From TrEMBL:
Gene3D superfamilies: 6.10.250.2080, secretion proteins EscU (3.40.1690.10). The chain crosses the membrane at residues 36-63, 83-104, 143-162, 182-207. Required for formation of the rod structure in the basal body of the flagellar apparatus. Together with FliI and FliH, may constitute the export apparatus of flagellin. The lineage of its organism: Bacteria, Pseudomonadati, Thermodesulfobacteriota, Desulfovibrionia, Desulfovibrionales. This is Flagellar biosynthetic protein FlhB. It is a multi-pass membrane protein. It is found in: Cell membrane.
Length: 355
């Protein structure tokens, strides 16, 4: 299947996490098989003395005591429990070691992951078997898997041939060997066959793991449009955000206009800027900006001020300074106290009564 030329961008973290949640992870199947076989070989090599000892006990009992043993329900039960215990003692440590290696191999490849989505049945493949068969036949992965399996079959089949060819001259002297010597020879020869087969299998497993990870990354690749869409979803659509901002500014403007009638004075630029101030020593020690605006907002502030009898004073430097440095609801800075006080002193509300 040809790669989509539009997929040129590396997958984002969100794309990777979504893929993991669906159970789609880079996991080489051959590496698990090879490590399990290697673990079994190591486990048997380390534990072979214990297994041999237990087998001697079982065969010694079978050859010496079994013919004269009277079978009864209790005797059969005791025999079965004893044999089952010895078999478990021989096999369980090796099996646990193999299970641990298998778990460790998968954990190192995949990392911590728990999902049930991989168990969800895919009915589209069942309802359309021809489509699935067509994809299978034209998919390059099919050729790769076939080549991989063929190489493994050759390795597994060729390994015994090499070992037997090497050991053929050693079979004759076994006629004079003890039973234990024959057993040791068979086990060592079998281990050599496994090792001969494991070497190419390990090479195939490493190559398969590399290819699996490379193919996984290739399938996760994204187009520029997909990256942009994901950013929009994460950051919010700019059009939606702009609309929300307009609504927010509109609501702020409406609340601001409702406060203009409470102002003591409106300082203007005179046409481009308007700032409404309120001074109430019981509320704040300095005048507060109730509303401010430029262009059409400034005109609206002045219009409401005229309708409600709020004085309007022209002071270009002060209007600009208040508009730039003071936010709505904040008190004016200390450096503007004197200038604002001079404006307020001109108002009848703040003039001292004549004696």
């Amino acid at each position: 299947m040809a790669k989509d030329p539009s997929k040129t961008e590396t997958a984002t973290d969100k794309r990777r996490n979504k893929s993991r949640e669906e159970g789609n992870v880079p996991k080489g199947q051959e590496l698990g098989k090879t490590t399990v076989l290697l673990a079994g070989l190591i486990g048997l090599t380390v534990y072979i003395d214990v297994i041999a000892s237990e087998l001697k006990v079982i065969f010694a009992w079978f050859l010496s005591t079994a013919p004269s043993t009277v079978l009864s329900p209790s005797g059969v039960y005791t025999l079965l429990t004893d044999v089952a215990g010895r078999i478990a003692y021989m096999t369980l440590p090796v099996m646990l070691f193999i299970a641990f290696v298998a778990f460790l191999t998968q954990r190192l490849q995949v990392g911590p992951l728990w999902t049930t989505k991989v168990l969800k049945p895919k009915f589209d493949k069942v309802l359309n078997p021809l489509g699935g068969l067509k994809k299978l036949m034209i998919n390059p992965k099919t050729v790769i898997n076939l080549t991989k399996n063929l190489l493994q079959a050759i390795a597994i089949g060729f390994a015994p041939y090499l070992v037997l060819k090497e050991e053929i001259n050693k079979v004759g002297p076994l006629f004079y060997a003890t039973t234990e010597g024959i057993a040791v020879y068979i086990l060592s020869t079998g281990a050599k066959m496994v090792i001969y087969a494991l070497v190419p299998m390990l090479i195939i497993a490493i190559a398969d793991t590399w290819y699996t990870r490379w193919d996984y990354e290739e399938n996760l690749m994204m187009s520029k449009d997909e990256v942009k869409d994901e950013r929009k979803q994460a950051d919010g659509d700019p059009k939606v955000k702009a609309a929300q901002r307009r609504k927010m500014l509109q609501a702020m403007a409406e609340r601001m206009m409702q406060d203009v009638p409470k102002a003591d004075v409106v300082v203007t630029n005179p046409t481009h800027i308007a700032v409404a101030l309120q001074y109430n020593p019981m509320v704040a020690p300095a005048p507060i900006v109730l509303a401010k605006g430029a262009e059409h907002l400034a005109q609206k502030i002045k219009e409401i001020a005229r309708e409600n009898g709020v004085p309007i004073r022209e002071n270009k430097p002060l209007a600009r300074a208040l508009y730039k440095s003071v936010e709505i609801g904040e008190a004016i800075p200390e450096e503007l106290f004197q200038t604002v006080a001079a404006v307020l002193a001109q108002l009848n509300k703040f003039k001292r009564p004549q004696p």
